[in-house]
Design goal:
Elements: E1 2-6, E2 11-14, H1 31-34, H2 47-64, E3 87-92, E4 98-101, E5 108-110, H3 119-122, E6 129-130, E7 135-140, E8 147-152, E9 161-162, E10 168-170, E11 175-180, E12 183-188, H4 197-213
Parallel strand pairs: 8-10
Antiparallel strand pairs: 1-2, 3-4, 3-7, 4-5, 6-9, 7-8, 11-12
Length: about 210
């Protein structure tokens, strides 16, 4: 363990060697993690064990930052571990190829696939080309299969995208229709949305349960 910084109630450190692996530690299934891709931070943990660790992180945050040491945190439902993300954001390199930011850095790791992206988005990654340093966002609807793409320069100006199939709507005004909890939502390429329609539906269900309890 290499310690990077020390704060009042926590330290920052970097793992440099695994001497004794946890029983739930696994080799990341995605080869780009080994190459340094920072898009996924949990692939070294068995999918079934991840939710418990995330609950512990929420408890710790509430205790340290929220000063709520006795807060009750319960695990809810979760999405499938792979192929679930219906929105992905990548950067473009000098040659226009796309990639994710390297873990702990700003430079890109070029990828031609993504294990957590919806298959309809993963197939766009090796096809698309954009202006250097553009930020590129792809989105797909789980309900309709509609796809959008948006490339922006650092100052927010739209940047040209090329290489995409004809069905992909491009630009800030491009939209998809997603269905969450039986409601149709129009989602623009430039707006925020949850990692998937399924994930958004889980949040709605938690809110409904909370409302009934209160």
């Amino acid at each position: 363990m290499l310690f990077r910084s020390r704060n009042r109630d926590y330290w920052r450190a970097e793992v440099v060697e695994v001497v004794g692996a946890s029983p739930v530690r696994v080799s990341p299934p995605c080869p780009f993690v080994e190459a340094g891709c920072g898009g996924c931070g949990w692939q070294h943990v068995e999918a079934a064990a991840q939710l418990g660790f995330k609950v512990d992180m929420v408890r710790d945050a509430l205790a340290r930052q929220g000063r709520l040491p006795d807060a009750v945190v319960r695990a809810g439902a979760t999405v499938v571990p792979y192929g679930y993300r219906t929105t992905v954001r990548l950067g473009a390199g000098p040659d226009g190829r796309l990639g994710f930011r390297r873990a702990g850095a700003h430079d890109l790791v070029h990828v031609d696939d993504c294990a957590v992206a919806h298959p309809a988005l993963a197939e766009l990654i090796p096809l698309a080309r954009a202006g250097e340093q553009a930020e590129v966002t792809f989105r797909v609807s789980e309900a309709t299969g509609e796809r959008t793409a948006l490339a922006l320069a650092g100052d927010g100006r739209p940047v040209r995208l090329s290489g995409l199939p004809a069905d992909v709507a491009v630009g800030p005004g491009a939209q998809i229709t997603e269905v969450v909890a039986a409601r149709s939502l129009r989602v623009s390429a430039a707006s925020f949305f949850q990692s998937s329609g399924t994930a958004a539906g889980l949040l709605v269900e938690v809110d409904r349960k909370s409302t009934r309890l209160n």
